[in-house]
Design brief:
heterodimer, A: 635 residues, alpha/beta, Beta-Lactamase, Alpha-Beta Plaits, 6-stranded antiparallel β-sheet, 22 helices, B: 141 residues, Rossmann fold, two-stranded antiparallel ribbon, 23% strand
Amino acid sequence: MVKKKEFLILFLLLLFAGFFIYIYVYIKQTQEEIFTRIENNKIQEISYIFHNIEKNIIEENNINTTNDLISLLSTQKIRKEYEQHISLISTPSIKYVYLLVKDERGRFRYLLDASQTDKANFFEKFDVDNKKYNDIYITKEKQVIRQKNIENLFLTFLYPIKSNGKVIAILSADITTKIRNTVLELIKPLEMFFVILIIFIFLIMIILVMQIFYYILTRKKIFTDPLTQIFNRNYLNEIYPTINLRNYSVAMLDLDKFKIINDTYGHKTGDGILYQSTQVIKNSIRDNDILIRYGGEEFLLFINSRSNDKYTLDVCQRILENIYNHTFSVEDNDIHMSVSIGLHKTPHLEKNLHEALKIADKMLYVAKSQGRNRVIEYNDTPKKENTEKSIDINFVKDAISENRVVCYYQPIYDFRNHIILKYEALVRIIDTQNNIIPPYQFLDLVKQTNVHYKLTQRILSIIFNKFKNNNDKVSININFSDLINKDIMKKIIDSLKEDHNLASRITFEILKSDEIQDIELFKEKIKQLHSVGTKVSIDDFGSGYSNFRTILDIEANFLKIDGSLIKNIDKNEKDFKVVKSIIHFAKESNMQTIAEYVHSKDVYDKLKELELDYMQGYYISEPKEDLQAQNNLFA
Amino acid sequence: MKHIFFLILLNIILTASDINLHKVKILETIMQEVTLKTQKLIWSDNQDLLYKLKDGKKLNIVNNCESANLIIIENSNILKECKNKKIFVLKYDLLAEIKTSFGALFWKKGRPNIIILEPRINQQSIKIKDKLNPYLEDRIW
């Protein structure tokens, strides 16, 4: 894509070139016109003189035939006299003036020659090279011959000497190129100016074309990712203002667990995987789809969906399968990969591309959190559309400042004693239209930002206030990054160190233990939590990477088994065995176990077969704004 | 710039050599139309013309006057030994000056003219083909 500006300049130059060529041609035509006018003028002038000479020779000497004329001019004295007459019209521009006759053999001969140079003898033969010499005897009209091959001659004027209506001789005048040259010299500077101008414009055009060529080359470099040879993020910025989102679906693709590949096999292998993955993706899409390396192992795909809506999902499934089935052979390692895809089929409904990408990214996050290697399509109902469209970091900031952050509470159920052990506090935001926005829609947006820490502080305040004056227990989800934030830790310590009662009823559920980089620091922070009398629970145990040693070291009170292991436990024997092992490990380590994602009676019944301590899930009770009473469970 | 200068120079050279080239071509044609009793061996006192005729390879050109039987000259001071050769001149006046010359090719008023003197070719047993008939003259005017 060459910018319009370059094309406009090129077009203008072409226009100028065309204009100057036209002027040049016009000058040439004018030049010809001048020549013609000079020619006509000169011929007119000579014609009058020749007419007088004709009159003089024919009438004064009573000439009737060619022979009469030859015999008259055979006398040298008379010849001299007439040659003197006609020599009067000799000028620098009229070089030769002579009288010709045609003899009985049809050859032309000089009768008079008034030329100053190259003078011919009387009756000397004159070889003609133009049929106009003979034509004049038939047409009896003046003839003009434009000379091209005779040096220094511009044209020859032939005047018929007539007697009794017959042509008996020809008066001829050779006009030199002197006039022509004078005209040419006069016009030459102007002509030269236009020639130089045209050459100059053509040179500029060549330079411009070269510039455009280099511009295209440079553009290609700017917009191409050197590793994968596909478009990079710069290209996204380039197409951002012009892309018609009605023609495209947007998909965010992320290679699963790519960090582990990089850490295990090294960056060279990682690069190899990235390159091969790109090839697999490219082979799974069409030419009119746009693939962009969005960053790291993340790709952005614009799927041209104008012709076939079904194609969009098909292409995502195809990418998923092709990546999954491909064996990545890099540096003697055969590696298998998977990809998670977040798909937004109607990006044009969003405020702009940025919003559409955010939603696709959110779907990608959902795909990741649901176990990876899947496509999650954004199903937007009109209501959702209105709410989610406006979700960004400012949405969260506004919610904090306008007190629209709330907590919902889901009971954690002691199924053996049929009592509620405690409640898990789950954050929600009420948007400006009173819709309840779940955390997966905004938490990732503020992750690692100051807004996240403010949000955590707000949640802590809400929970501490709610549970300060009752005897219920509560679990609070917290990230490692929150724990190492000085303000948050200060708030926890300051709020709980004087209120042992409250502290003893609080359990901090540590989220995503696989993100913990500094184990020692983590242990220290957990120790601080223990020191004020709170309990600690490990969240999502069993998913991803779990460091058993660290879990044992921090002396957690609870172990919450990841929902992905629970949700199909009634059908999946492997999950059952894993959960059984986790429970065994927890018992051995003095930890109580909680199963989350208990969504059906079958799951509930199956879990009862295990030595599990507590359960939590929609089957028991969904999260509510108020704390649920025991008799409202299993409703 | 060098290229433009070269093109201008080339144009000048070509223009200047036009007449010479024309002359060579006409002479080749005339000489091909002239027949002697023996094979024509041609020489010219104009070295440039001699080379060009040689290059043309249409005529048998020899390097000296003595070896030739037909000479094309533009100066009257020819060797004594060559005076009895068949002589074709390149100036009209030489036709009168060199009494044995049988024809001429000359430029008058920028135009080429050919004259073949009929009495002299008959006298010297020179035959010409029909193509040259329009140029036959009985005498020098």
